[in-house]
Specification:
The protein is α/β, with parallel strands linked by helices and 176 residues long. It has seven helices and four strands.
Length: 176
Amino acid sequence: MLIGGWLRKQGASLQEKVKAIVVCPQGVSVSRLMFIELRELFPEFAFLDSLSVREFHEYELDYDIVFSPILLETDKKQFLASSFLEREEKFRLRKQVMLELHGYIPFEVNIDEILNIVRKHAFIENEQLLEKALHEYVNRDDKPSVFKHEAKNFAANLSDLLTPATITLKKSVSSW
């Protein structure tokens, strides 16, 4: 029951997410780097694959949008993005995509501006760690499962429940 419920939950959440692919003509390594950068830039999307142009024309999975540095023949929404995204281009691309898909421009928090304010009014021991912590805080997932709970509110994970003592072995069963 637990596994079935989890699989249904995961399937439903994948159906709700925008499914994206990355197509890059500059080889597997560059395509993979672009894929990772875009996945970090759009954590609310489900990124399915990074593909070459040839693989794209043979691609059979359902997707909603395409990111690529070149124009492609597709009836899906396509967003042009260079293979190596600079900071300003990331902001521009995120605003463009969100406006096109959801009809709004998301409010962006500029970590550099926050650091400048902190520098004016406080001594910073480790600026890199502060910047990393600010990025993690600003880009955190607001779902309750992310926050740490006290031990009294502990929710068991599947690995906590599936132990040798709770597993029953049988030669065959009628369903999974």
